[in-house]
Amino acid sequence: MLGCEQMLCGVPPATELEKNAEGDITLDAYGTCCIVRGAAIIGCGGGGSPKLGEIRCLRALSEGKKIVIVQPERICSEGYPELDGVVGNLAFMGVPEVIKEKLVAGAELRACVRGVQKMWHGDPSIKEGQKVAGITPVVDGCLDDVYVAPGMEQATADYIAAVTPNSEHQRMVALMPLEVGGMNCIEPLVLAAELGLVVVDCDGMGRAFPEYQMFCPFIYGAPQCPCVLVAPDGSVHAATAADSAEQLERYMRLKCVELGCIAAIGGCPLSKDDLMTKSIRGSLTRCYEIGNAVLRARRANTDPVAAIVEKTDGRIVVRGKITENCIEILEGFSRGKFVVQAFASVDPAESRYRVHVQNEFICCFRVCSNDENDSDPDNLVICAPHLITTVDVETGYPITTEELRVGQRVAIIAIRADPLLLTPQALAVVGPTHFMPEKQYGFKLSEPVFPS
């Protein structure tokens, strides 16, 4: 299956989004390539390799499966009984670098759907363990049957169809990405195609974040459990209750590390109200528009970096070359920093910029000394929750954290965060007070910074 870069020669040709009268979008190969690229651009370096998601998505289309995207308003709307229910949210948790070496089996997300469904509908086989550190876990073994080996996808679809809705909990009728970032944006689309479900045009972050409690529905009060974690080997951990989203993150992160730093996670299904008021709406369409702008710029032989900036109303921080890359796996995350030195042709001073990383690109400083730990607040260019993305300076192809290499010629672009991430309630979770603690950086910053 050809990737986006190979397809630039003319296969497939650029197409417009296929929409029906209700505004539902049916993706083709070109649209998929657009979403893959756009998701990696606004994924801020995280979410896993977009190339892996692209391959799986294009394969699903080649097998005749359909990927249909609907607007949040269509869920539980009069006249559409097939969409009368709740929406599942899924992603992979762990270290992006590990996914390159330890490929996912393809069955983890399906197992998450089955596990969440069993817990959501009160399956009598689910037994609660003793509450520990604010988490009520499921007793080991209760969910061993949710993992269906690759090649047995229909078993999961049959299970979902067999679930009988009741007055308390509705059936899962659609999926959505937990975050729009790399593979994590694309895998729910693949799974929805396999299960015959639709995908809702929204996500929970408007970008990728490194920690589970940064899911916007959690920030604004949506329930966190049931929650299911599934490793590539079929190991399952789950929680029926959590005192806080932060405690749930710590519990699942520890289990993820024990399982090899990569696992799929599925959270409590979301209602229509959650979608409309607590999620980032239109995010998949935005990914398409950004990716489409880049691919069309490439075909027209114009500047794809400029196309990204125009489509996102972003700012170019620097065009230059990566001169340092010091990122390692610590505590279940890819942590560290990398440095980009500006091209003399665009910046005669050849200024240097240092980007700090925790799976995603968190903040960027202009480097004004030889002290690698120098973090003068006056030199801070941008910080989370605003988006920092790194792309190839010639092709506009996004470069994720695990793909950074010394010598790469890149452009760093700043993009404003969604307003839902900029409220005081959200900034307490995803703002600089969390990502840039005073003890580590030497200064206190309460409001995010964005380049003028």
In the predicted model, the low-confidence regions spanning at least 5 consecutive residues are 1-11
* Share of helix, binned: 25-40%
| Portion in beta strands | 15-25%
How many beta-strand elements?
19
Oligomeric state of the chains present here: single chain
Instruction: Tell me the distance between the termini.
Output: 42 Å
Main β-sheet, spatial strand arrangement? 1-2-3-7-6-4-11-9-10-5
Radius of gyration from the alpha-carbon trace, in angstroms: 21 Å
Largest sheet: 10 strands, mixed
The helix tally amounts to 15
Helix/strand class: alpha+beta
Query: What's the rounded overall pLDDT mean?
Result: 89
Structure description:
The protein has 452 residues and is an alpha+beta fold. It is 31% helix and 23% strand. The chain is built from 15 helices and 19 strands. The chain has helices spanning 4-7, 29-42, 50-62, 96-101, 108-120, 153-162, 182-195, 216-219, 245-258, 272-278, 283-299, 304-312, 424-430, 432-435, 438-441, and strands at 18-19, 25-26, 68-70, 86-94, 135-137, 172-177, 198-200, 202-203, 227-230, 236-242, 262-266, 280-281, 315-330, 333-342, 352-358, 360-367, 380-383, 387-392, 409-415. The strands form 3 sheets. The protein has a 10-stranded mixed β-sheet, with helices on both faces. Strands 17-16-15-14-13-19-18 form a 7-stranded antiparallel β-sheet. A hairpin with a 2-residue loop joins β13 and β14 (333-342). α2 (29-42) runs antiparallel to α7 and α11 (283-299) runs antiparallel to α12 (304-312). The longest helix has 17 residues, at 283-299. The chain is globular and about 70 Å long. The two termini are 42 Å apart. 53% of the residues are buried.
